[in-house]
Design brief:
The chain is an alpha/beta fold. The protein folds into three domains: about 90 residues, Urease, subunit C, domain 1 (Roll); about 250 residues, Metal-dependent hydrolases (TIM Barrel, Alpha-Beta Barrel), CATH 3.20.20.140; about 110 residues, Diaminopimelate Epimerase, Chain A, domain 1, CATH 3.10.310. It contains 16 helices and 22 strands. Strand 2 and strand 3 form a beta hairpin. It starts with a strand and ends with a strand.
């Protein structure tokens, strides 16, 4: 294909020739070859395709067919009741996602029984760490008949409360009858936003989940490149567009693993060339993770995920280590009002920082954490720029980025978040995102609606009709 009259790096108009999946030529004027398709950019800016450095593909696919149970779609108990009553059919599981305590507190099985008395119901907390079940679901899983697992909450009498912590894979295995989610719509929505590659940051990913992702790539359901985190035992994928990435370690402040055990995981992951990604959403988790990286002494490819609360002393610690951080600025908009209501006032200035990391010299990338956040990276960019909550409050004004800095959070290669942005130059992969306007206009909007075409390996994977 020949793309004509595009703005690239502030220069316009330029033509770009794509051949065999790579950028073959970039010049002010390239003559059309016989039979060569032409796309007129009409002065729109041509960018490297966006890379979402942290999301969860299978959970996102499942969420698209689940019942939204939290903000912004559902905000109170009546809204939750209406959402669940809208589910059609008489049999099988009902799956809800996105719940937060502001809707109806911390429901146990009896409260959920009043909403859905007969069909098995499971609702996922928006953090992804908790599932809440009604009694029909508890019965279906056998939790009152001797079935148990670490993470099944029980009351003083030993009865299951209906709350399951960190048991995604366990629950998925026991539900059993569900088919793997169709990832075609996931791939389409990502392409619509200009996303040409992603890092799947799911800690529990093993051979079964990897096989599903490879099958989706084989079938063309997901045409983006996929970097896959997961278990230390994750095999090497057998697909050109699916690459094994870091070992994912999810830390939980209320049940931190043995320090020496995590240190060993980091050392072995680095020795294997995979690196490690440490999930941190509290102060304690972040300090623990930094101390582990320091003790391990081998940090190539290692990174901190979320760093949701990062006070200055922890940021300085990370800077001394040379650690990379993948942040989630979109949570400022999506969850900021709840943070202001529920997070300790002393931690609010350090929530989902951006400028603070860059000022300390820490390589910084960004992810959407979809489906636990909105999958649109352009919304994340806007949040990094204006730092406004949904209600309009400003959360951390000093953490604001320029539009160019916000865009750069999604332009580095997946293996090096916060590294140098990928280039549009001869010999580079033709993973591209074309907007319908020049950057001087697009930077004021940062909207996915401005994407007019997305290319992966030189092929058009989405184009505005």
């Amino acid at each position: 294909m020949l793309i004509t009259r595009a703005e690239i790096g502030g220069a316009a108009p330029l033509d770009v020739r794509i051949a065999e999946g790579t950028i073959a030529e970039v010049a002010p004027s390239l003559g059309r070859r016989p039979g060569e398709p032409v796309l007129d950019a009409a002065g729109g800016v041509l960018l490297p395709g966006l890379h979402d450095h942290h999301l969860h593909l299978l959970a996102l696919g499942a969420a698209l067919t689940s019942v939204p149970c939290g903000p912004p779609q559902v905000r109170d108990a009546d809204g939750l009741a209406r959402a669940l009553s809208s589910v059609r059919g008489e049999k099988g599981w009902i799956r809800g996602v996105g719940y937060f305590e502001s809707v109806a507190g911390e429901p146990g099985r009896e409260q959920l029984d009043r909403l859905v008395p007969e069909r098995p119901l499971r609702i996922q907390h928006r953090t992804g760490v908790l599932w809440m079940l009604n009694s029909a679901a508890v019965s279906r899983l056998g939790l009152d008949r001797g079935v148990d697992a670490p993470g099944v909450e029980r009351d003083g009498a030993g009865r299951a409360t209906g709350r399951l912590f960190h048991l995604d894979a366990w629950l998925r295995e026991r539900v059993g009858s569900e088919r793997p989610p169709d990832l075609g719509e996931v791939g389409h929505r990502l392409a619509r936003c200009g996303v040409t590659s992603v890092t799947d940051a799911t800690a529990e990913t093993g051979p079964v989940e990897l096989e599903i992702l490879v099958a989706a790539a084989d079938a063309g359901a997901v045409q983006q490149r996929i970097l896959v985190m997961g278990l230390p035992t994750l095999p090497d994928p057998s697909h050109a567009r699916v690459v094994r990435s870091a070992v994912k370690v999810r830390l939980a402040e209320d049940a931190l693993p043995a320090f020496d055990d995590v240190t060993q995981i980091v050392r072995r992951a680095c020795e294997a060339g995979r690196g490690v990604a440490l999930h941190c959403v509290t102060r304690a988790e972040l300090v623990f993770a930094a101390a582990v990286l320091e003790a391990a002494g081998a940090r190539r490819g290692s990174r901190i995920e979320h760093a949701a609360i990062a006070p200055p002393d922890a940021v300085a610690f990370l800077a001394r280590l040379g650690a990379r951080v993948v942040c989630n600025p979109s949570f400022v908009r999506e969850r900021g009002d709840d943070y202001l209501a529920h997070v300790d006032a002393g931690d609010v200035p350090w929530l989902h920082r951006c400028r603070g990391f860059l000022a300390a010299g820490i390589p910084l990338g960004a992810g959407t954490d979809a489906p636990f956040g909105v999958f649109d990276p352009w919304q994340a960019m806007r949040a990094a720029v204006d730092r406004r909550t949904e209600a309009g409050a400003v959360l951390g004004a000093d953490e604001r980025l320029s539009p160019e800095e916000a865009l750069a959070l999604f332009l580095a290669p997946g293996a090096t978040p916060g590294g140098a942005a990928r280039r549009i130059a001869p010999g580079e992969p033709a993973d591209l995102c074309l907007l319908d306007r020049p950057w001087r206009d697009a930077r004021e909007r940062l909207l996915a609606d401005d994407v007019v075409a997305t290319f992966a390996d030189g092929a058009v994977i989405w184009q505005r009709s």
